[in-house]
Fold these 2 entries.
Entry 1:
Amino acid sequence: MEYKHFSHQHPLTLYKLQPGQQFQCHGCHLPCHNSIFACWVCSFFLHDHCGNANRYVKHPSHTMHPLVLMPSPTYCSGSFLCNACGAPGSTFSYCCPLCEVDLHLHCAYLPPKVSHKSHNHEIYISFRPRDQKDSPEYCNICRKELSCRHWSYYCAESGCDFRVHTYCATSEVKPGLYQDDQPDDSGTSTSSTNQNNCVYEPQASAATPEEVLAEMFQLQMQLQMAQQLNQIFNSTRM
Ligand SMILES: [Zn+2]
Ligand SMILES: [Zn+2]
Ligand SMILES: [Zn+2]
Ligand SMILES: [Zn+2]
Ligand SMILES: [Zn+2]
Ligand SMILES: [Zn+2]
């Protein structure tokens, strides 16, 4: 069975890794395990969850706009800084070009709650930036500084002051957590058919991410022009 992925020109085949085989996923640069999508001509590999990731998601960390899956960063630097973990990335990202929100694919699909052996309660993900405190906060697992701008996992029990880095809490990826933000005209439920959703050729009627991006950039331009006009207007009145 051959699959088409929007980020690669050749068809991909699903392949089960043999023990000892080591490949790196092109979508997230992390090592592959279990099943992968492969182009053997180019040595191009994708985790099954990276290959199946929805092109658009409604993400609870950014509810104003859909996040678009981009195969590579749109910035001239060729890299982005992940709003979830703060680390740079140069491959797949979920982004909102209007707000300059960029997430690693694996950060976008972090589980909402996890258990960690260092704490006896379940801990929950928090997307919200926290107020800058006078003294820096430290991660209860690695003891390094915890930036108030990035996501964290925390314990909600009263009396527990437990907060950690997302990447210290878990390396789990939960693909299919969030709904595809595209109108579903095939009549199938996106939550249960996620496994097959995105690797197949997109439906002809669906807007491509490029079209969505173009539309968003246009909106951004209009916004900027309106702001500039406003400035000119205000300065001439002075
Ligand atoms: Zn991957
Ligand atoms: Zn190829
Ligand atoms: Zn990240
Ligand atoms: Zn946005
Ligand atoms: Zn940590
Ligand atoms: Zn606790």
Entry 2:
Amino acid sequence: MTGINSNILADRKKSIVYKSGCKGDGITCDTESVTGSVSQRACVFCGARVVLNPITDAFHIVHGPIGCASYTWDIRGSLSSGDELYRNSFSTDLSETDIVFGGEKKLAAAIDEVMKHYSPNVIFVYATCIVGVIGDDINAVCKTAEQKHNIRVIPVLSPGFAGHKSMGYKAACNAIMSLVSPYKSEQKVDGINILGDFNLAGEMWIIQNYLKQIGVNVVSRITGDASFDNIIKAPTANLNIVQCAGSMTYLAKRMEEEMDIPFIKVSFFGIEDTTDSIMRIAYALGNDACIRKAKEFTKQQSSKLKTFLDKYKPNLEGKKAAIFVGGGFKAISLIRQFKELKIETVVVGTQTGKKEDYEIIKSLVNENTIVLDDTNPSELEQFMLAMSADILVGGVKERPLAYKLGIAFCDHNHERKQPLLGYEGVINFTKEINLTINSPVWRYT
Ligand code: SF4
């Protein structure tokens, strides 16, 4: 990194490493963002909202100024097979007077109004920054509303300033536990819960279809295409699979401790990880018929894709990729996917990766690959240029950085409209990477 780290804030240097220079305790991660570094991370409230929002028939009341509600309104491309209520955004629209005199009455009135016009089974109430500052007791308001209306009204303690996105994930997991705990059951059914897939562009349905092909029953979806009636069945499953480990490992651990449901982490991005995940689910269930079907299914799907990939490899071989995504599991799968396409990952980072994620990342990348945790736009730009990246994979906040530098971009975040998951996703991903990386437009920038 010598020569390219002169603009890096001193406190940020421990969160940026390159493999051959990474000694001692390794990368500093899973900590608060450095003050003044303009982190790419989202706030606590956003973390909670993006996890709970795909529950299709729930009401989400954002207790705070209108800006918080608009910030997270419909930001996921989560699809529904039923209700569309989740695509609305409800806010108590707190103003100066409420901030001086308190917003509890307004919140109680908002819940009453919802109940007058609709009949939901569950309402989530999110505490935002200002609610944390003025100290509204949303627990008490929710409890009173539950008794008054005889439905679940669950407080989500997520003031934005209280930490970062990961804390919001935890708040969302606690809210889900509060929802499912009354349905705890000793009696298990033969089936699994899918945790941490949000049905972006129908990806949950792709996973469900794979599981159907190998004879595995899905009990509950948390939270892609979920509904109240479906989610409360979760305690009866005999296995949890965790796709987005960053947001859902905490829930999986609590369900293991409190409901006796073991879990395994999976990733359905890329051929290698999709095949590996399907096989591990089959082995975890220990069902011979299922293992046999999984072997046949994955073999058939992988060999179909080999011919497809061989066609694209000559266009992509030798290109260099930069990756900046939310969680570690996705970064790991992307490095493997790029390897399969003969593309070298030269910069890789995450918003909320853990030490163990970075250890795996380190084992997969080349000696000089830059690995960064919780980066900011200035660092990303600097490293993409220094490492001559041809493409950046990220989300909506990273897109302008790539285009400004004349570098190709692939959106792998929750706004996207086409699935990148599973074997189908490999086809979409490869085509998109090929189109953007080889676009003639980059010659004119
Ligand atoms: S940081 Fe605070 S004010 Fe901003 S969106 Fe998050 S909760 Fe709302």
